[in-house]
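Running this now, will post back.
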Amino acid sequence: MSKELIRLRDLCMAYDNEPVLNNINLYINDKEFLTLLGPSGCGKTTTLRIIGGFVTPTSGDVLFDGVRINDVPPYKRQINTVFQKYALFPHLNVFENIAFGLRMQKRPDPSGPAGKKLVRIPEEEIRERVMEMLEVINLKGFENRKPDSLSGGQQQRVAIARALVNRPKVLLLDEPLGALDLKLRKDMQIELKRIQQQVGITFIYVTHDQEEALTMSDTIVVMDKGSIQQIGTPEDIYNEPKNAFVADFIGESNIIDGIMVRDKCVKMYGREFPCLDGGFGENEPVDVVIRPEDIDIVPVEQGQLVGTVTNVTFKGMQYDIIVDFRGFKWLIQTTDHSPVGARIGIKIDPDGIHVMKKSSYSGMFGDYSSFSEEYDELDDASLALDEEESEDEE
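Update: finished.
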């Protein structure tokens, strides 16, 4: 059983009387990779900064190994931080960047009276620990390079090594992949998870990127408006979202108004669909989540519902198809092509239907009527960026 390392208890934070965090209660286990996930302004970075000691909460407690550390300054916590801006020293090589924190440290002289004299870490130990970190981050042989000769991913790994060489119990990472391009970001997701497992310490990671959270995390904490919406494994968060916000934020979702007729039976569009959920009141209004990949396209006569294709986008491995069902647009992800204007039937297996209780987020998500306009905006933005780059080259 995992040991609890950090606990946030009734944590509140306000700036100028404006609440940023509302009664956050969360525990984090030793050696866990936990991600705080949510949109900008949801409170995830504030939570991270409170754990690191950079911000003092308005009320509530931060416990580390069962001890309250609200008033402990950052440099006295067994916690290090990697920010989005790596802040490597450009005039120092990779070795000296990683060794910097060790050179600043002093510790009791093992040969003298206890607690009387502080001495610097011996050079031999510094070299041993830095070379050990270079092995961990797969940059052995790069110790004499300057930061400006490294790629973005390599610089990020140096920043991680500089934090880990001090042997903290917890590493905080505040959107560290945000400055990298898409392919490098995907590579670094795998690399970060490997490093965390190899060094065997707790990573607390902040991101607004759902793919990063799903790829790396043991536990995901979904936040919005200063409150925790759901805590769970990536599989739990994706497959069993607690409300419409979580369902919409994690992956693509069709979220439809439904009526829970009875256990394992939900009604949508006047038709009853078998499902696997229960425990709701009879004829209780609910939100129904159907993931785009869980919908099968079938001939009209075999369909549980019949609709009209209004938009088709080729995505390489699949088509994103928008289908109009009585004025509500659904997204279907499929390898089967259906042209715009086609009438199609759909079939959903019981395990593809997820039923949620109504919440303050009900009715806010799930209709893909603006889908094609969003793609047009993305295309326009890409075109504008290409034009700017062309002008820069000229």
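Residues 386 and 392 are 10 Å apart (CA to CA). More later if anyone needs it.
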